[in-house]
């Protein structure tokens, strides 16, 4: 197996508790992410998903563990890891073009103006915002703003895309069409993506692997679910596939009951946080033992 | 609907103006025999003219209109040091205000930027700002006259001091409260410090900074009149004081109207500028 693009190793985050002591939000989180892979992280509110994403983005420091990108430990934010924030976080005094261009000139400071423009236009077209280049964010709908955020992230051509519940603030129709767009763009460009979501259907449509986190505090990666739906799935026919309900029920079951009581499962079996069980719902014979998604890197420990 | 509202508001404004002028007119109609009873203390207080028993009734609106017209017809005459057109006096005052104000802006905005960027500086400088801010700018005047020994520059210094605080405090506040997500955007794009300051923090804080600038220009224009009354020589404040000594109420009212007009123009100009940097979220 090739070396993963990103490797999360023994990551932990603790906060000082009121009146002494510490609360551990999560600990001993291990997760490799391959190049070109689309990984979704699902877990209940407060289990530390945003914290993990912020650590990946370099905006937050972990209390323990490391994130290794391309063989090097990350030390801060980087243009190689573009973030699509939960609130679109466009700069409201700039136009759509201005926002995208701000990102592009950050990546390519020496590009002439018209080259920057052309490059931005390409990505504005990709997210179907042609004609809205000169609008300010306040003049756009929620879905359009989110698409500008996506264009801004894509335009810097990052090695990896980090998305924190990018569609959660949108209505179902807009969300659906944006999911389709993101899926098209990401498969076309073989983009590596790490996305947080609350939405099972979204994860099933977009992700190659779905990472399930237990409830906090002391959240862990409980399981990694491989998407058993065909690669060429689309929103319109995904529910017709034979594995659809097996996969969906497995995820629902985890969120509704197992995420709370995972400690019991840990006590019962051989749970290894470095190699959380991998499941492929709907497939007759689950690969036994689970195929190692990656041999964890030998770290001095 | 809105058009009819502004129409009605305009009509009401005109009615209030007409009413005020009418009351003023009837209240100041010359009445016989009112000249004799001048309070001797008052007569002593007001110099020359009144003490000589010269009649000095409050001017009627028509008198003031005539005086105003006289001034507006020839605002820039110079007949000796003590007799210059009201336009020249206003120009002196405006000049002092603008110089003091611009120096204050040049100090307050960069300084406020640094304070706002650093929580340490915010905390460390806060007690000084809190104590210095409420001091009436005129209280600095004796100190300024003593150290600077030039009345014109002292007036500018007083303007500088009074314009400083609102701009300093607003800039620091605006910079300190730039939304975290916008800073995160800049961070993930690896934007350099200078580019971040000018492309993200400055535009984000600009509306707050402009509010401070608008407050400052208003205060500066209030203070210049008082400052010029103290230092004398030139300026609209001096003009008012001088006309008081001449007991020329018509000139004083003219000056008051013009002070109000200029203040309004300054405020409108800054409100326009504020609209240029405003953004909707
Ligand atoms: N500054 C802080 N001090 C103390 N605890 C914090 C702080 N920031 C976050 N936490 C805790 O860390 C935990 C994880 O927060 P995080 O934002 O990562 O959750 P999340 O999984 O993204 O939740 P959601 O799905 O609601 O967005 C929360 O329980 C929160 O209480
Ligand atoms: Mg979150």
Automatic annotation (TrEMBL), chain A:
GO terms of molecular function: ATP binding
Protein location: Cell membrane
Keywords: ATP-binding, Cell membrane, Membrane, Nucleotide-binding, Transport
InterPro entries, alphabetized: AAA+_ATPase, ABC_transporter-like_ATP-bd, ABC_transporter-like_CS, ABC_transporter_ATP-bind, NO3_transporter_ATP-bd-like, P-loop_NTPase
Domain of life: Bacteria
Location of the region described as Disordered in the Swiss-Prot/TrEMBL record: 272-301
The ABC transporter domain, residue ranges: 6-240
Membrane-protein topology: Peripheral membrane protein
Keyword Cell membrane listed: yes
SUPFAM superfamilies tied to this protein: P-loop containing nucleoside triphosphate hydrolases (SSF52540)
Main location group: membrane
Family listed: Belongs to the ABC transporter superfamily.
UniProt-recorded name of the protein: ABC transporter ATP-binding protein
Organism: Chelatococcus sambhunathii
UniProtKB/TrEMBL annotation, chain B:
UniProt xrefs under Pfam families: BPD_transp_1
Keywords from the UniProt entry: Cell inner membrane, Cell membrane, Ion transport, Membrane, Transmembrane, Transmembrane helix, Transport
Transmembrane segments: 7-27, 98-116, 154-176, 219-241, 247-270
Subcellular location: Cell inner membrane; Cell membrane
DNA-binding found in the keyword field: no
UniProt domain ABC transmembrane type-1: residue ranges: 90-270
SUPFAM superfamilies listed in its UniProt record: MetI-like
Protein's membrane topology: Multi-pass membrane protein
Protein name: Nitrate ABC transporter permease
